[in-house]
Amino acid sequence: MNGQRTAVIIGAVALGAGAWRAGGWQGLALLGSGLMLWFMLYYTRLLTIMKRANERPIGHIGSAVMLNAKLKTGLSLLHVVALTRSLGQRLSPEGVEPEQYAWTDPGQARVITEFEHGRLARWWLERPAPDPDEVAATEVKTEVEA
């Protein structure tokens, strides 16, 4: 993560130097207004995602199987919240790496995710054990049909 921050700082200084060389103060003002526009777009997206997540219960999702299919290593927590439209139920203690969150669907299947440094590292799908009465009823039904 330190290398990425260093690259961003070097890139910002190079962009500022290029803006200064191209247009002086006006170039820097144009760069500043472009950066402000980018910040406002990012902030609006963040607020929209959080507003949608606020309208749902914590840790609930329509289909855990569909969420499991959409997840990819390296997604940010914000991106996962945008996919689920719900804040995850925190499983790990505050400030402990890796952070674990879970989302559960109406059928009690759940996806547990692990985030390291704010990025999705691992996830798995847990399905509820089948009810023994339902399994027995299915076996009897199958035998009668045969």
Number of domains: 2
The radius of gyration computed from the alpha-carbon positions, rounded to a whole number of angstroms, is 23 Å
Reported for the largest beta sheet, the result is:
4 strands, antiparallel
Counting DSSP H or I runs of 4 or more residues, the number of helices is 5
Uncertain regions: pLDDT < 50 for 5+ in a row? none
Strand line-up of the largest beta sheet: 1-2-3-4
Total strand segments: 4
Helix and strand succession? HHHHEEEEH
Query: What class would the helix/strand composition place it in?
Result: alpha+beta
Mean pLDDT: 88
- CA-based shape: elongated
Describe what this molecule looks like in 3D:
The protein has two domains: 2-52, no CATH class; 58-126, Beta-lactamase Inhibitory Protein, Chain:B, domain 1. Helix content is 55%, strand content 16%. The chain is built from five helices and four strands. It has helices spanning 2-23, 25-54, 64-70, 77-84, 132-145, and strands at 89-90, 99-104, 110-116, 119-126. Strands 1-2-3-4 form a four-stranded antiparallel β-sheet. The radius of gyration is 23 Å and the shape is elongated.
